[in-house]
Protein: indole-3-pyruvate monooxygenase
Organism: Mikania micrantha
Amino acid sequence: MGSCEKDNIFMKPAGPIIVGAGPSGIAVAACLKENGIPSLVLERSDCIASLWQYKTYDRLKLHLPKHFCELPLFGYPKNFPKYPTKKQFVSYMEAYANHFEIRPKFNQTVVSAEFDSEHGVWRVETQDSVYESRWLVVATGENAEAVVPEIQGIEKFEGVVKHTSEYKSGCEFTNQRVLVVGCGNSGMEVSLDLCRYNASPFMVVRNSVHVLPREMFGMTTFGIAIALLKWLPLKLVDKLILFMANLKLGNTDKLGLRRPKTGPLELKNATGKTPVLDTGALSLIKSGNIKVVEQGVREVTRNGAKFMDGQEIAFDSIVLATGYKSNVPFWLKGSDFFTKNGMLKTPFPNGWRGENGLYTVGFTRRGLLGTACDALKIANEVTCQCRPMSGDSKLEFRSK
Ligand SMILES: Cc1cc2nc3c(=O)[nH]c(=O)nc-3n(C[C@H](O)[C@H](O)[C@H](O)COP(=O)(O)OP(=O)(O)OC[C@H]3O[C@@H](n4cnc5c(N)ncnc54)[C@H](O)[C@@H]3O)c2cc1C
Ligand SMILES: *[C@@H]1O[C@H](CO)[C@@H](O)[C@H](O)[C@H]1NC(C)=O
Ligand SMILES: *[C@@H]1O[C@H](CO)[C@@H](O)[C@H](O)[C@H]1NC(C)=O
């Protein structure tokens, strides 16, 4: 059935349509609001920052120090610790949205957005409504959907299988042997959390990975990297960071965590792969509480897994720490601004503006720091386009 046959609600909001009420979407709406420009935020979930509220584990704290994770115009409360907890971060987001009076429209899943060149507007369809605006801001995030790999035999497994987006705490895994697939920040932290609940995690590490200390010499590793990058080329900064990391952590290769040939910052820039910032998992790997399995999983059986080298181990549960992906290709039509994986073709810092009033925020692979940067640029440009059109006081938005 075509969309025209549905009993659709049709709306032409004043100002841009922003898809996604995560930190990125809220930040753009706030920066626009500050300039007197209204916007409409469409969100599939029933709250703001739904990734943080619904899809993260209880023990999560910001990975980076708070001043690198601040949204524009309204900072963290002074009494927040250096690494705010998930609860604190969510309360910050709520205070932020309240401060700028951002009220997203919830339960609106954008299923299609396409530029209508005849009328010069973006036509945005959700499951039950159609919206039109001159501006479309894509803020659905780099982590919109869980990546769940196909593993042979997994349907036969009798225990629990969970993606990290559904993992809350190790509480339900007490005394279990748990296969953790993936060794990024999530895999490491879930393994750490499992140990605290007396479970035995076996972490599959198939690829190489950079593990760095979260802090070195009383400073945050991220802060050191940013400071050094102001003066030194990236490759040299990588060398220095790795030198210091090896002093502090020892040779991680010996633990089964092989370092990639490319340095951590260069790799991040080239592929988006984030280094792991260690929050305690490494010492549990050293002590043998977290077991590193250097073989890929060949197949899952009724009660365990067979690995590539033929070894078979019994497990009670499986946690897939296999990451997330963008969902932009599923709903943004007729634009070649994104790759087929839903990431930007244009590298930072130029990816925030597409054609025909298309904008993107939060696709820089630079976390909330990138979001803050994009949000201000978008708001300033849209504001410039609105002002000449406004009458004495009341803004008016018309299609061509
Ligand atoms: C475990 C974890 C820890 C992290 N820690 C940090 C950190 O310490 N520092 C940091 O800077 N970054 C961190 N990040 C990265 C984090 O994702 C971003 O910083 C931040 O959440 C990005 O905000 P966003 O608004 O771009 O995306 P999201 O927070 O993912 O928000 C996107 C919103 O869009 C909505 N949406 C998606 N598709 C649609 C659709 N079709 N229609 C309508 N709505 C839709 C989603 O429901 C969601 O609410 C972490 C990520 C994870 C998973
Ligand atoms: C969300 O939208 C769907 C489809 O329009 C509707 O059936 C459902 O009741 C809505 N849920 C809430 C919580 O409003
Ligand atoms: C970072 O990546 C971009 C391409 O995405 C490349 O053009 C640039 O040279 C890289 N920077 C460094 C310092 O490697």
Remarks:
- The longest strand covers residues 110-116.
